[in-house]
Structures are given as C-alpha cells and as structure tokens.
Amino acid sequence: MSKLTFARAINAGLRKALDNDPKVVLIGEDIGSLGGVFRVTDGLQKDFGKHRVIDSPLAESGIIGTAVGLAYRGYRPVCEIQFDGFVYPAFDQIVSQVAKMHYRTQGRVKMPITIRIPFGGGIGSPEHHSESPEAYFTHTSGLRVVAVSNPQDAYTMIQQAIASDDPVLYFEPKRRYHDKGDVDESIDLTAALPLDKAAIVNAGSDVTLVAYGPLVKTARDAAQAAADEGISVEVIDLRSLAPVDYPVVEASVRKTGRLVITHEAAQSGGLGAEVAASITERCFNYLEYAPVRITGFDVPYPYSKVEMHHLPDLDRILDGVDRALGRRNSLSGLEG
C-alpha cells in the first residue's frame, strides 16, 4: 500500500498501462517534457519516449481527431484536455465521431479512446478553467463517462478506462489533485470494482446522499457532521455517470426513503435532475420526501473571489439533508 496524491495515482496508473500494452499512447498539450499543467504525466515521456507520450499542438479538435485515427489502427490513445472549458473545440469530434463510430459500423470499428478532463472549481481560476461539462456527455449515447473521487479509484479506473473497448471520458477533480490516500498498486483489475459500478462510501439509514468527483469528500464530511446530530446519512459515490448504477442508488433509497443529490454543475439540465427523475420513477412508493438537489447555481462560473459561494459546501449539503427530512421548508425553486 502506497500513500499517493491524486495526481501521482493517475500518473502511476498511466505508467502501468503504458508498461502493459505497447499500443497505449498519450497525447495532449504540454504533457511531455512539462508533464502537463498539473504535472499528472510528469516523467512519462522521459521513460517511454516522444512516440508514446506525444506533445500535441494547441488544438483540441486535432487531438481527438488524431486519436480517432490511432484507434482505427489498433492503438489505445489517452487524450488529455488541459482544462474542462477547453473541451468544446473537440465537442464535434467526441459526440459526432467518437461516440457513434462503433455503433455506425455495427461493431467492426472500436474506439478505445480515453479522454482525461480535469474538471470542477475550487482552485481560484476563471471560467473556462473551472467548469463542469459532464452533462453534455452523459446525454450522448455511445460514451462512457466516469468521475473519480479518491487516489485508489484514480489509479484503478484510469487503467480500466484504457482497457475498455468503449470510448471513456475520465473526469478528474482538479481541486483534489493534492489530496493523499492509500493506493494498492498490486491490485488485480479483474478483482477491482467494475468501471460502471457505484460505491457506498458511508453507510447510513436516514438519508441517501449521492455525489461524485470533487464533492464526495465534502459529502462524507457532511455525513460525519450530521452524525453528530444523530442523523444517519448514507453516501454513495456514483463513480460512473454514464451509465449510472441505479440499482445501488435504488436499494439505498428504498431503505432511507429520502434522496439528496449534489454536484458542482449548474442545476438546470444537470445529472442530478436525471438521477432524481429516475429514482422517483423507480422508488415513488418508498420516498418520504421529494428528492433534493444541491448544486452550483445557474450562472456562468463566477470570479475566483466568490467561487466558494457558488460551489456546494458542507453547510449547503446539510441544509439539503434537513429539507429531505422535513426539518425546514424548500427554497421555492432555488434548491441549488
């Protein structure tokens, strides 16, 4: 068991994938000698060469287009999008080509492309560097979308994503890059939790709290604070955003009768709305209160001086738990 930061855990997972399969190649802006903006790929070009860790031009559409060609030729490209807000120039390639190629060719062409996207706020950066664009891609059939929340999953899930024959968008919470945790680097991927499964990270019986990516840690902190008041909160880390592991969420809500969902993205059209609707359909007779969403506000990402008022924090999540328990009234449409 090693103690690694989030960023080093991803680096270790990429290193192992490069070691295990000569068809794995990395491509992105400044990922080589610089090691990426967040130093996630630090040292990999030195050890594996410029033909396997490729510094690309500043052209996200070109990065993904090149990856499509590589996948056609049997490679497993791993693309780094430098910041979440920079993914949009590649949007057409991802949703029009990468997501549809396997289906369009009736399985004859596979697209084993992994697209790494640092996402979310909390690092004092402006818009375009602090966004949460995951809902655009969870809406797109043909893509797997995952969000990691801890170093062990970061290490394991990057390898699972690369090994998948499906295209995977791999969202990394940039404000957690320096968080440390235990990582078992000897783990057998076949014995690890599958890529599309959710995890219960805090057992509870009164309220189900669903989170992913950067807010899993905040949700666990909120569960601990609620426990001090005698409230038992079950925290679920979704891990997979498309497909969502609804059986795990459904089983929890059938037990607790109450659901709170939190994410940094804006509320309107966010993944929380889809989870709330789906669980209401599946668990209507078990729900004691309408699902509550605690999200970012429906505004462009704010200036860094006020971003912490925009991002869901422990107090806002606890407020949502109180509302789900009927301990205070709803905010009349301003639940985010």
Question: Can you describe this structure?
Answer:
- With 336 residues, the chain is an alpha/beta fold.
- The chain has twelve helices and 14 strands.
- The chain has a seven-stranded mixed β-sheet with strand order 3-2-4-5-7-6-12, with helices on both faces.
- Helix 1 runs parallel beside helix 7 and helix 3 packs parallel to helix 4.
- The longest helix has 15 residues.
Any chance you could write out the topology, listing elements then pairs?
Blueprint: E1 2-5, H1 6-20, E2 24-28, H2 44-48, E3 53-55, H3 60-72, E4 76-80, H4 91-98, H5 101-104, E5 114-119, H6 134-138, E6 144-147, H7 151-163, E7 168-173, E8 180-183, E9 199-202, E10 207-211, H8 215-227, E11 233-237, E12 240-242, H9 246-256, E13 259-266, H10 271-283, E14 292-296, H11 307-310, H12 314-324
Parallel strand pairs: 2-3, 2-4, 4-5, 5-7, 6-7, 10-11, 10-13, 13-14
Antiparallel strand pairs: 1-8, 6-12, 9-11
Helix pairs in contact: 1-7, 3-4, 8-12, 9-10
Structural class: alpha/beta
* Main sheet specs: 7 strands, mixed
Mean pLDDT: 95
Strand content: 15-25%
| Tally of DSSP β-strands | 14
Count of helices?
12
Q: Using only CA atoms, what is the Rg?
A: 20 Å
Low-confidence stretches: none
- The ordered H/E elements are EHEHEHEHHEHEHEEEEHEEHEHEHH
List the strand order in the largest sheet. Answer: 3-2-4-5-7-6-12
Quaternary state reads single chain
Summary tags:
single chain, 336 residues, alpha/beta, 5-stranded mixed sheet, 34% helix, 20% strand
